[in-house]
Structure formats: structure tokens, C-alpha cells
Design brief:
Order of helices and strands of chain B: HHHHHHHHHHHHHH
Distance between the termini of chain A: 38 Å
Number of strands of chain A: 18
Structural class of chain A: alpha+beta
Shape of chain A: globular
Structural class of chain B: mainly alpha
Largest interface: A-B, 23 and 18 residues
Helix content of chain A: 25-40%
Largest sheet of chain A: 6 strands, mixed
Strand content of chain A: 25-35%
Oligomer: heterodimer
Number of helices of chain B: 14
Order of helices and strands of chain A: EEEHEEEHHHEHEHEEHHEHEEEEEEE
Helix content of chain B: over 70%
Strand order of the largest sheet of chain A: 6-7-8-3-9-10
Strand content of chain B: under 5%
Number of strands of chain B: 0
Radius of gyration of chain B: 23 Å
Shape of chain B: globular
Distance between the termini of chain B: 20 Å
Radius of gyration of chain A: 23 Å
């Protein structure tokens, strides 16, 4: 079981309110991702759940019981840190065994669990090495192994992949997703990378300045962002936000259209512009277009074989059904 | 661009370093040499450097006249005891200052250090009276206790500096893994800080070993360590430089040998945090 409820949880550091009172419910077995820009309070929120920070007010319930005042050790949560936080003076085996040793588990059971975790994480050959002798990916696996053996109520991940190189990151992302499917345990994952959030989450919590902007499935956030912030944050490349006369045509303060929902033509279309930079990725071409009133530059995602160059004149037509409208206060209208 | 160091410059630096090193070492060398001279040669003018009649007579006299073993044992107990006691008290103190600092932590650290700026003689009278009151005069335990107190600020400061270098996330990981405060300090913090703790131990052992003010003022015969052993040869009825030198050499020899073997650890300890 791993149901976590946050009720009016607030955090202040001195006089600075980092997280204004918020409510959040995380269901058993869910993969929840906290995403937001740097300094939005997502790590603080995770640390509050972990018990590494004290709440200023409000309650945190784990499986229906109030855990607000419990020390981290008593919350039955396991955490994987950004820096891996392995014990450098212990072998991989001892690192993985540490939480079980603290729990006073018997030796045979410890050995069994270490063997299982090592097998699942491809660490069997490295059990007697020290963390310093391992690569970044292996260290991250040890950190995950240390979390698994406790069989916690929930796993907490604090930007666990940000120290890895791009290729390894994609691999580890899939491993963590598979682990979630296999264990079926609640996981809370903090990241600033919206691609990680979109690909891994059952539920995404978008945070901005300590406030929850929206909670929903990846596609909900993509298709119906509740406000301009979520619209701009979720999706890559970013949604184009257009103000002025074009927006007024839709009776809105701002309209948003994603780069992949705009058709580009060299002959005719609704808007005319000039190509600034065209990024050819092979599968896609990202074209940054200048001269569109109310949005400069506008980004368009075209197919990989579109041959446009700097200075070309192009015509753009947005898919009318995919236009998002926002009011002056930034909230979604339709 | 890396700073260019010419060979000539290197030679000048090396020579300068040797000169300074020898200057610092000279008093010790002179003491050792004098201890092998006769009393007459010891005060000869001009001084005799290497060419004199080498004799170990002073050592035999010193050994006959005083019980070196007892002084040595007292030194070991006082220096070792005060250092270990200090470490036991300082580890939790430094832990809290490094990992859960309050707004006043910096002030407390400075205040602790400021007690080292007070001349010891300033508090001799009250401490002496307290020692009489508690029957601790000429008592090994009393001396161990007072030396522990005197070196405690340095021990806390050194450990605090080492602990600050340990990433807090590792301790948080231990907390998440179910470690209580005791386990966290015992299984995670202390093993990780072993190099720092070792150099703190060494430095404080040396400081306590050489401490002379309190050891001379608060002891008479029973608890007297090697500092008192040396002092007993600077007699008012005449100057026995050779015997005094022999006593000094015997007093500093154990700590010198220990320092020699642990110099790597000591240097690392003293430059920790500054050079990384």
C-alpha cells in the first residue's frame, strides 16, 4: 500500500513561503511526476513527504495514518537521490543491505533480497566493489537497489537521472518505468524535464512558484492545459502563444497553438513569415519563423523532408480545432 | 596558461625551504646534540657542534635520578585520555553544528575559539581553587579533564570543518534507510570522516603532550607528566644543560617518532578543506 494525501501542506523557510497551502492525493500504485522549472518547490515538496523537511502547517497522511510528525525512518518510504547518496566506505552489497540492517532483518533474508535486487538490476558482478569503482549508471542502480530491498510503501525519486548522460538517461528512464510495472508500488518522481514527465507518469503535477498549476495525465495536460503556464511548459518544442489581433479573432487575450499543429506551405496559408532558423533532425524539422504578428518567433514542427532555408518566405495555417484560448488572467477559456 | 616555473626559481625556492626548515629544526637538533655532551662541553665557548667526546652519561644519570617510566605513563594517560574524551564529546557537537546549524551556530563556534585567546594564567586562580575543592590537585584524572576542556574548541572546530565536507544527502539517505541519530553517526558519518578524525586525534595528542602551563601548575609528583620531568632539570642551584637536554630529548622522542610516522595524515589534516 502506498496512498499519500497532502492536506493544506505549507512550507516556509523563515518568512519566505516556498509552498503555499496545497492539497494533493496520490493513489496506491500510481507513478506521479512533480514537474516544474528550477526553484518551483518540487524537491521541497518531495522532501516534505519524505520527512527530511518539517511542514510549517498541514498534514501528510500515508495509508490513512497521519505521518506529519514521523521521522523519515518511520514513514516506510525509500528515496533515490540526485547524487545517488551512496555510502562511499561500504561495498555495493553493504550499501544495499544497510536499510535491512537498520531494520534488524535476519541475515538469510537480507542475503536473499540482495541477490534478487542485484539480479534485477544487473549488479551481481559488482557486489563487492565500492561505489567509487562504478560508473554513473551503475551507481544509480545501486541507489535503486537500496530502495527496492526495503519493500517500501512508496518510492521517492529526486531528479535521479540528471547526472547521467543523454543515452544512459533514456535507458534508465525505461528501467524505472519497467520497475514500476513490475513492483506496482507508488512512485513519486521529481524532474524538471517535461519529456521524463510525459513518458513516465500516470499523473503529472505541474508546479510553479510552489503552487500546483495542474494535475492530470500526460495527455490531459497536453490536450487541455489549464493555463498559459502549463501550456508553455508541457510539450516540446513549446506551444506558440499569440497575443493581439489574432487572439482577438477568437475572443481571447492569448491563443496557443502547438508547433505540430501548424501546416507549413511555400505557396499559401493564413499567416506569412520568414524562416529564421531551420533545425533538421532527420525525422522532423523545427522551423523558427519571424514576422508573425503577436508571436515572434513562431515554431513549427514539419516533417523531416521539408526543405526550407534561412530567409525563405513561408505560409502557415494552424489547425483550427487545436487552437487553445486563454483569458487575460492566463486561464483556459474553452 | 599554467604558471611557468623556471629551474632557477625552483632552486631558490628549494634552498629557501631548506633554510627555513633547518632554522625551525635547529633548537631540537641542538638539544639532541647537547644531550650527548659533558656538562663542560655543553657550555663551551665557542660552542662545539659535532666534534666533541660523545657520551651517554647524561641519559644514565637522568634515568638513575628520575623515574622516566612514570612520567611517560602519565603523559600517555593525560594526552591520550584528554584527546579521546574530547573526540567523544566533539563528534556529536560538530555533527549538530555542521548538519543542523541554528542561527547562532557561527557565534557559538567563534565564542568557543575565543576561549583560546584568553591567557591561561588568567584563569589559573579559579581553576586552582576548584581543583583544591574537588581534591584534583596532582591527580591524573583532573589533569586529563582540564586538558580535554582546553583542547575541546580546537577539536570541535577541526571536526566541524571535516564534517562540512561530507555531503548532507548521504546522511539524509541514511535517515531514509531507517538509521536513527546514533546509527547515522556511528555507521555513516564517523567512518566517512575517519581521515579527519585521525588527524584531529593526532594533532590534539601532540598539543596535550606538549602542554606545560597546566601540567606544571596543577601537579607535584604523582600525576606529573614529561613536561614536569623536563622542568625538574632546570634547577635553580646550577645549570645542567647537558642533563636538561637529555631529559628534553627523552620527553619529546616518543611524540617526535609518532609525528614522523603520521606526518602524511597530519599534513592532510592541517590542510583539509584548503587544498582539494
Amino acid at each position: 500500500m502506498g496512498r499519500i494525501q497532502l492536506k493544506q501542506v505549507q512550507k516556509k523557510f523563515g518568512d519566505v513561503e516556498v509552498i503555499p497551502p496545497l492539497d494533493l492525493e496520490i493513489n496506491d500504485g500510481e507513478f506521479v511526476v512533480f514537474v516544474g522549472p528550477s526553484g518551483c518547490g518540487k524537491s521541497t515538496l518531495l522532501r516534505l513527504i519524505a520527512g527530511l523537511e518539517d511542514t510549517t502547517s498541514g498534514n501528510i497522511d500515508i495509508d490513512g495514518a497521519d505521518a506529519t510528525a514521523l521521522p523519515p525512518a518511520k514513514r516506510r518510504l525509500a528515496m533515490v537521490f540526485q547524487s545517488y547518496a551512496l555510502y562511499p566506505h561500504m561495498s555495493v552489497r553493504k550499501n544495499i543491505a544497510f536499510p535491512m540492517k537498520m531494520a534488524g532483518m535476519d541475515q538469510a533474508e537480507q542475503e536473499k533480497r540482495i541477490a534478487n535486487a542485484a539480479k534485477a538490476l544487473n549488479l551481481t558482478d559488482y557486489l563487492d566493489r565500492r561505489p567509487g569503482q562504478l560508473s554513473g549508471g551503475q551507481r544509480q542502480r545501486v541507489a535503486i537497489g537500496r530502495a527496492i530491498v526495503r519493500e517500501p510503501a512508496a518510492f521517492l525519486f529526486d531528479e535521479p537521472l540528471s547526472n547521467l548522460d543523454a543515452a544512459l538517461r533514456v535507458g534508465m528512464r525505461m528501467e524505472i518505468s519497467e520497475l514500476h510495472k513490475k513492483l506496482d508500488t507508488t512512485m513519486i518522481y521529481v524532474t524538471h524535464d517535461q519529456v521524463e514527465a510525459m513518458t513516465m507518469a500516470d499523473k503529472i503535477v505541474v508546479l510553479h512558484a510552489g503552487v500546483i498549476e495542474q494535475v492530470g495525465s500526460p495527455l490531459e495536460l497536453y490536450n487541455t492545459p489549464r493555463n498559459k503556464f502549463v501550456a508553455g511548459f508541457i510539450g516540446s518544442p513549446k506551444m506558440n502563444l499569440i497575443e493581439g489581433p489574432e487572439a482577438a479573432k477568437h475572443d481571447a487575450h492569448t491563443i496557443g497553438i502547438r508547433p505540430e499543429h501548424i501546416d507549413v506551405s511555400t505557396t499559401d496559408g493564413l499567416w506569412q513569415g520568414t524562416v529564421g532558423v531551420a533545425e533538421h533532425l532527420g525525422s522532423d524539422t523545427f522551423i523558427h519563423i519571424h514576422g508573425i504578428p503577436g508571436c515572434d518567433p513562431m515554431t513549427v514542427r514539419a516533417s523531416g523532408d521539408v526543405a526550407v532555408r534561412h530567409g525563405d518566405t513561408v505560409y502557415l495555417t494552424p489547425n483550427a480545432e487545436r487552437i487553445h484560448t486563454f483569458s487575460a488572467d492566463g486561464l483556459r477559456m474553452s | 596558461m599554467a604558471r611557468a616555473v623556471t629551474n632557477q626559481r625552483k632552486a631558490i625556492n628549494t634552498t629557501a625551504a631548506w633554510i627555513i626548515g633547518l632554522l625551525i629544526f635547529f633548537p631540537i637538533l641542538w638539544t639532541v646534540l647537547t644531550s650527548f655532551k659533558s656538562e663542560a662541553q655543553a657550555i663551551a665557548d665557542p660552542p662545539l657542534f659535532l666534534f666533541f667526546d660523545w657520551t651517554t652519561e647524561n641519559y644514565s644519570t637522568v634515568m638513575e635520578r628520575s623515574n622516566y617510566g612514570r612520567f611517560l605513563w602519565n603523559s600517555i594517560v593525560i594526552a591520550g585520555g584528554s584527546t579521546i574524551l574530547g573526540i567523544i564529546i566533539a563528534i556529536p557537537a560538530a555533527w549538530s553544528m555542521a548538519f543542523v546549524p541554528s542561527r547562532r551556530t557561527k557565534d557559538i563556534l567563534l565564542w568557543m575559539l575565543s576561549t583560546k585567546m584568553l591567557p591561561a594564567v588568567g584563569v589559573l586562580y579559579p581553576i586552582y581553587l576548584l581543583f583544591i575543592q574537588f581534591g584534583l590537585l596532582d591527580n591524573v584524572y583532573g589533569l586529563t579533564f582540564i586538558l580535554m576542556l582546553i583542547n575541546l574548541p580546537i577539536i570541535v572546530w577541526m571536526l566541524y570543518t571535516y564534517f562540512r565536507e561530507i555531503p548532507g544527502e548521504i546522511l539524509e539517505a541514511a535517515r531514509m534507510d531507517g538509521a536513527g541519530l546514533k546509527s547515522e553517526i556511528l555507521y555513516v558519518l564517523t567512518p566517512m570522516a575517519v581521515p579527519g578524525i585521525a588527524s584531529t586525534l593526532l594533532l590534539n595528542f601532540i598539543l596535550a603532550w606538549n602542554e606545560a602551563f597546566w601540567t606544571l601548575n596543577l601537579t607535584a609528583a604523582k600525576a606529573a607528566p614529561l613536561t614536569a620531568f623536563i622542568a625538574s632539570y632546570s634547577s635553580p642551584e646550577g645549570l645542567f644543560y647537558a642533563k636538561l637536554s637529555a631529559a628534553s630529548t627523552m620527553a619529546i622522542a616518543p611524540i617526535l617518532i609518532m609525528g614522523w610516522f603520521s606526518q602524511k595524515q597530519l599534513v592532510r589534516g592541517l590542510t583539509f578543506g584548503a587544498v582539494k
